């Protein structure tokens, strides 16, 4: 691993939208001898990089929360029941009982259209933990790809279309194509 204290290396590190965990790995390599618990940064490389990375992390975290707010509002507008009524962080939990589908089945159907969610128990869930009555959604991955308000609203629409038509394979295929088109605009790796 090569790290430079100059500003020319910083855009390379950040241009790939390095996740917080990856940034921490870099900092550990840069500043192996220092105490992160007390915030000691004796290494000049760490002193140069940490403030700039911290600002980028805060901006990234704000985008994640903003996207979560947009997604939760869009899902609520479409009639879904969010367990907490919305979200204050990067996650939200949807109660699916009113739609006659389990969390396990919805997770499977969304996976078929290339949207990854997790089945999740809701408070006082009548289903077993292996089936569940809810799904959990988060926004860090789509935020890392560069999704903004329009894409988040399209994502909400696709999720709702799958939920409303989870037994209709034709609709599922159309939703898969919509997801592919959306992701093609925001590739994980750019040439």
Can you walk me through this structure?
The chain has helices spanning 9-15, 20-30, 44-77, 103-112, 140-145, 149-164, 169-185, and strands at residues 81-82, 91-95, 118-120, 134-138. With 191 residues, it is of the alpha+beta class. It has a 4-stranded antiparallel β-sheet. A hairpin with an 8-residue loop joins strand 1 and strand 2 (91-95). It is globular. Mean pLDDT is 81; it is low at 1-19 and 30-39.
Gist of the model:
With 191 residues, this protein is an alpha+beta fold. It is built from seven helices and four strands; from the N terminus they run αααββαββααα.
Feature tags:
single chain; 191 residues; alpha+beta; four-stranded antiparallel beta sheet; 7 helices; 4 strands; 8% strand
* Rounded average pLDDT: 81
Number of helices: 7
Q: Strand order across the biggest sheet? A: 1-2-4-3
Low-pLDDT segments, ≥5 res: 1-19, 30-39
Number of separate strands:
4
Radius of gyration: 20 Å
Helix content: 40-55%
- Along the chain, the helix and strand elements come as HHHEEHEEHHH
Strand fraction: 5-15%
Query: How many strands, which pairing sense, and closed or not: the largest β-sheet?
Result: 4 strands, antiparallel
